[in-house]
Design brief:
Mean pLDDT: 96
Oligomer: single chain
Strand content: 5-15%
Number of helices: 13
Structural class: alpha/beta
Order of helices and strands: EHEHEEHEEEHEHHHHHHHHH
Bound molecules: iron/sulfur cluster
Number of strands: 8
Distance between the termini: 34 Å
Radius of gyration: 22 Å
């Protein structure tokens, strides 16, 4: 038993010898840093549907929008339906996961740009692994990312920010959602949402304002789905800077002019790409300690995930 957040992971990324050739694709960030913070649940859909290792390699063929997963070596071996069904099964079994890291380029696990072979032509990079597609269809709110994309600091930060939003949402559900707690949840994510889009923040606010006018469960589900969709957007440096200036407005009276100038200087340094986001945010958090503004203190923007992940050090 563990209190750590659960993440699904393509088993080969954890170093398990489950690939078609009996090998693995060990990823040191996943087995190193992530095991400290998360409970990683290994899943190999191809092994789970009864293909052993080693096994014939598979690929996507046919219509790019709905390809089949077949073997190029064994005529008639088509495991599409098995993988689709297994994706649905995993969605039901792992309903407590808050994110999923998949192996890129795999006809079963890839999230995007998987090669699809069409009538002997050059393969198109337009497919989605059949297992992962089925999982994402069943859990459309679930943060899913490929191990290769996690090497991009912005995408990595975005993924884990969503994982922790998802976790907070699950905790809220377990505690028992109320109209007040839904409003509070939205308010506490204001600046995180504004780092994506002010317009979307307002749109979600309008959804939440319908509380009491429609069934809470239904409203909450639509809200969460829309929230997770908005958070997929990258938070650009320009938008993050706007958020920081917005937050600075709260400190205006509290800070001496010298402190204010220091903070403005760091926001500008960040905006121009000279320092990472962690620099102005850390100073702001320092000033926040002496603030009694409960609204600001409750903003997840300041601490979206454990500091040990060091995600804001490189964006
Ligand atoms: S990519 Fe997916 S199906 Fe292939 S070995 Fe890894 S976990 Fe198994």
């Amino acid at each position: 038993m563990t209190d750590k957040i659960k993440l699904g992971v393509s088993s080969c990324l954890l170093g398990n010898p489950v690939r078609f050739d009996g090998g693995h694709k060990h990823h040191s960030f996943i087995t190193g840093t992530l095991t400290q913070h998360f409970d990683l649940v290994a899943v190999c859909p191809e092994m789970a549907i009864g293909l052993g290792a080693p096994r014939p390699s598979l690929r996507l063929v046919g219509k790019p929008e709905r390809p089949r997963v077949v073997s190029s070596k064994i005529p008639g071996l088509d495991v599409t339906d098995h993988l689709e069904n297994y994706g649905k099964r995993v969605a039901g079994l792992l309903d407590e996961i808050c994110g999923y890291i998949v192996k890129k380029d795999s006809p079963s696990c890839g999230m995007e740009r998987v090669r699809v072979y069409v009538d002997g032509k050059m393969p198109q990079r337009s497919g989605v692994g059949v297992f992962t597609k089925s999982l994402m269809d069943a859990m459309p709110w679930l943060p899913v990312e490929e191990e290769g994309r996690l090497n991009d600091p912005v995408l990595r930060e975005n993924f884990f920010e969503r994982v922790f939003v998802c976790h907070r949402w699950q905790k809220l559900q377990k505690k028992g959602l109320t109209p007040a707690s839904l409003v509070e949840f939205h308010a506490a994510h204001k600046y995180m949402l504004m780092s994506r889009s002010q317009q979307d923040y307002r749109r979600l606010g309008q959804m939440v304002a319908r509380v009491g006018k429609e069934p809470l469960e239904q409203l909450a589900q639509s809200y969460f789905l829309a929230l997770m969709d908005v958070l997929k957007q990258r938070a650009s440096r320009k938008r993050q800077s706007n958020v920081l200036y917005h937050l600075l407005g709260y400190f205006k009276r509290q800070l001496q002019s010298q402190d204010k100038q220091e903070l403005v200087g760091l926001i500008e340094n960040y905006r121009q790409g000279q320092v990472p986001l962690v620099v102005p945010v850390t100073l702001m958090k320092y000033h926040l300690k002496s603030s009694s503004n409960r609204y600001l203190l409750g903003q997840h923007y300041f601490d979206p995930y454990p500091q040990g992940l060091s995600l804001r050090n490189s964006i």
